[in-house]
Design brief:
The chain has about 80 residues and is mainly alpha-helical. It is about 75% helix and about 0% strand.
């Protein structure tokens, strides 16, 4: 079973303005968002069968995406 791409603006509509502002002003935050988007897109490609992967690699990518998301949310709450 595959999921849609995890979009930060859709997942955190309450932080939409802060996400846009921080992406424009904070290089570290923007880089985190870019890593999150790239990792999420890779997961979607694997889940859709467009990219080969083992279960362990997919699990590691999901854990990495969650850690990045946790860091993003911590920065948003601090802003």
């Amino acid at each position: 079973m595959w999921m849609d791409h995890h979009d930060l603006l859709r997942e955190f509509p309450e932080f939409a303005e802060a996400i846009v502002t921080l992406r424009a002003r904070d290089g570290h935050f923007n880089a985190l968002c870019a890593r999150f988007d790239a990792t999420s897109a890779e997961i979607v490609r694997i889940e859709r069968g467009k990219e080969p992967s083992g279960d362990d690699q997919l699990k590691a990518l999901r854990v990495a995406r969650l850690k990045i998301k946790d860091e993003i949310v911590a920065l948003l709450r601090a802003a």
